Amino acid sequence: MLPFTPDERTTIEQAINRAEKETSGEIIVVIATASAGYFAYALIWAALIALLVPWPLISLTDWPVEFIYLAQLAVFLLGALLMQWEALRFAIVPESVKRARAHQKAVEQFLAQNLHTTKGRTGVLIYVSFAERYAEVIADEGIYKKVPHDPWKGVVETLATHLDRGQRVEGFVNAINVCGTLLAEHFPPGRINLNELPNHLIFINQ
Predict the structure, then answer these.
(1) What strands lie across the sheet with 26-32, from one edge to the other?
(2) Is 24 in contact with 187 (CB distance < 8 Å)?
(3) Is residue 93 a contact partner of residue 38, using CB atoms and an 8 Å limit?
(4) Are 50 and 145 in contact (CB under 8 A)?
(5) Per-domain boundaries in the chain
(6) Angle at 43 between CA 42 and CA 45, to 5 degrees
(7) The pLDDT of residue 1
(8) Distance (Å, rounded) from C-alpha 40 to C-alpha 51?
(9) In 65-99, which positions are buried (b, 16+ CB within 10 angstroms) versus exposed (e)?
(10) Closest CA to 49 of 25, 90, 78
């Protein structure tokens, strides 16, 4: 993932500021390079490949056991080294596992950013993990009582479309604007519109 420039960050943060002026809700945007490292999967694959090495050597060669063991060890080390290549490491992880881990990370960030502590339980998290190509919007229980799940799914689908096209800033700004509109409809600002949580982007480097 290419880093966001200062101008891009400012544009997204300004969108958050504008949206929150029209609602008593809170919007947090968390961007992760990855939701997990998946190094355990890398080691498992390296070990499985290494376990296959002795069979053809035993069947097709008269190598001594010591040589076969060294060959097996070399294959494991080479496999473990190759698995450090991020693109390969992420490619071997099942999509279901990556989605589950990204969702888990999103829930963790919802709690870590204190969105569940807002007055009226009106916090919304926009979470994107680029390595897993995963986007999710999580709203607190106060919002779900008034706004059904379907509009949030639409936010995610539109955001994912923008990201697939490489339109990162446009995607986040659009998602923030839609979330702000939904919140403003059901949770207008009070006479004292408190800004309970910071409006800056939050980045997570795995």
Answers:
(1) 134-139, 123-129, 26-32, 202-204
(2) yes
(3) yes
(4) no
(5) 6-36+95-204, 39-91
(6) 65
(7) 65
(8) 16
(9) eeebeebbeebbeebbeebeeeeebbeebeeeebb
(10) 78
Rounded CA gap, 136 and 169, in Å? 16
Token duo for residue 146: 């008034």
pLDDT category of residue 192 using cuts at 50, 70 and 90: very low
* Separation of alpha carbons 170 and 184, rounded Å: 21
Pairing of strands 123-129, 134-139: antiparallel
CATH of domain 6-36+95-204: 3.10.310.50
Mean pLDDT value of segment 140-160: 88
pTM, whole model, 2 decimals? Answer: 0.84
Taking only the tens place, the pLDDT of each residue in 153-178 is: 999 999 999 999 999 999 999 999 99
- DSSP secondary structure of 110-159: HHHTTGGGSTTS-EEEEEEETTTTEEEEEE-HHHHTTS-SHHHHHHHHHH
Q: Whole-angstrom Cα distance, residue 163 to residue 2?
A: 12
Over residues 5-29, the pLDDT tens digits come to 999 999 999 999 999 989 888 899 9
